[in-house]
Amino acid sequence: MNYLIDTHSHINMIEERSLEEILQQAKEHNVKKIIVPSAYPSDIETVYNLSQKYEEIYCYLGVHPSEAKDWDDSLIDKIKEFAKSPKVVGIGEIGLDYYWDKSFNNIQQEVFIKQIQLANELNLPINIHDREAHKDTFDILKEHNKNSKVIMHCFSGSKEFARECSQEGWYIAIGGVVTFKNAIKMKEVATSIPLDKLLLETDAPYLTPVPFRGKENQPAYTKFIAEEIANLRNLTIDEIAKITTNNAIEVFGL
Ligand code: NI
Asked: How far is the CA of 37 from the centre of ligand 1 (A)?
């Protein structure tokens, strides 16, 4: 049986379980590697320290678009210093979020571009947060990204947008929403994207898959996402595990 990788999981934000319990349950559900993104500037050191302490934990460093007003250029040197560690496998989560607050789109874009340039300089992949900002996210990446691999985290676009992204060579990470009964659009995306661009993630503690929808999410539940995609594509869960784990190993150099 191939193991699974949760490529985006805020395990530092899970409240109902201890870290030891989270890692133990992940192991029991065959989830052997977990990548933890930072969101707030204050998370950067937290997730970095987790990656240094636990063998199965890796991290992305960056500032989430909703926190763009807290960006400070001194973070560039801090991230560069931490990125000397091989456990730092990307810049993220970064991007645009026009859902929560549209009042500082220009600041979001500025901070996004700075972090793309940082990822390019470090030659690290970029883990993208795009919520209700598909066009601007796409256009900014096309214009500013030179050499970094791109991963669309918690993909929420149409199958047409997924095709456009995969044609650019970008990866599509699918989470718990695909297991929701009424998530027709996500099921179409999961069925139609090229398998060599598919990644799995939980985005824990959010977006918990069925059958635990409504409860707090955790990396162990990557299993249910893999199961759903396997069913949709008439593959076995072991085949989905093999494909997505190989993709993650390749894109993040794990
Ligand atoms: Ni996230």
From this structure: 7
Q: Each residue of 199-244: pLDDT tens digit?
A: 999 999 999 999 999 999 999 999 999 999 999 999 999 999 999 9
CA of 232 to the centre of ligand 1 (A): 24
Neighbours of ion ligand 1 (CB under 5 A): 203
Q: All domains of the chain, ordered by start, with CATH?
A: 4-252 (3.20.20.140)
pTM of the full predicted structure?
0.97
In this predicted model, what pLDDT tens digit does every residue of 135-170 receive, in sequence order? Answer: 999 999 999 999 999 999 999 999 999 999 999 999
Distance 206 CA to ligand 1 centre (A): 8
CA–centroid distance, 94 to ligand 1, in Å, is 9
How far is the centre of ligand 1, averaged over its atoms, from the C-alpha of 6 (Å)? Answer: 12
- Going from the Cα of 173 to the center of ligand 1, the distance in angstroms, rounded, reads 11
Which long-range contacts link 146-149 to residues 24+ away (Cβ below 8 Å)?
146/120, 147/120, 147/123, 148/91, 148/116, 148/119, 148/120, 148/123, 148/124, 149/125, 149/251
